[in-house]
Amino acid sequence: MRARDPLRDPAPLVRRVYAYVAYRIGDGPDAEDVTSDVFERALRYRDSYDPHKSEPIAWLIGIARRCVADAAKPLPEPMAEPPAGAAPGDLEEDALRRLTITEALATLDGRDQELVALRYGADLTARQIGEQMDLRTNAVEVALHRALERLRETLEQPPSKPVPVTLRRSVRV
Amino acid sequence: MRRRFKRDTTAWVEHELRHHRPEPADDFVRELTGRISADTSRRTTRGLRIAFAGALTSLLVAAFAAFGGIGYAASAARGVAQTAQKVVAPDAKTRPVQSAAADQYVGKVTICHHTGSKKHPFVTITISRNALDAHLAHGDTIGPCPTSGVLGSQASRRGDSAQRGDVLGETATSSSLPFTGLGLLGVVLLAAIALGTGVALRRSSRA
User: Which phi and psi (to 5°) does residue B179 adopt?
Assistant: First the structure.
């Protein structure tokens, strides 16, 4: 039983699932709730996991995608100021940078957000992303590259020019 | 070349996405991991308990079968069925079944012939009823000879025409159980191991 247990080493899996969820719906308590929900479902259905079909993280991300769709929460609105609790110094800079990335991600369409979250949040390979999204590996790489280009353009824009909220598209894939 | 250039232009974005990847709070990770580990150990213990119960049941069934319990149960069931048949239909006459082979051997009888040989002391033969008395006087017995095996070989080694019960009585000593040859000490040890495993599993599931 232990050999096919997908939750044998849960800590790194929790971090990767959380990062994916946070890239999709935003960092914070909501992401924690969704991550908890993902693992609750994983515990309930762990017997259905087939190690021959996918790795544990890919299986968990499959569950996480459904949980995110159920939560149906778009990324948070861009904020002009950093959060009140932000730490000083480097930490503050980090927090600001993270916020900027979140804002830039929010300008992408749902499919691109999903691709970026799967690649850089869950740390899946292009092949695993292709299996999740029913795409060919090559198509994933091209789409991911285009998403990064769009993200780069957004991030290179001067900070004084906020992204209009009305231009954002739905986050649902 | 063009592709490589394009990749380079997005490399810093990739770096940013990786470097500033959202991280969960340590407390949250610890709590969730603890919950998962607790569930895992609970499931493992449950699986062990089921496996232990299954193994113990198999052992009991095997021991029951080894001591002839299944045969006793079958004959008891047959007896019950016959009794029930007598109660339900007391006047029903049973017609003796006569097979083709039995028809062929009318007036013949099967006996166990004692040859006096050391290698083959008994042989099953079919003789005329007229010759039966002579064979019985010679020490032969009616019915086929006992099948070869532990009993037969022990009996033949002794050159003894003793009944089955005599041989069994000698085989079943105080140190080993009849039919199985299992030592009493072995059975007691097995029981102690089973009991100890059960108690350990019970304790681990309560912890």
Answer: 70, -40
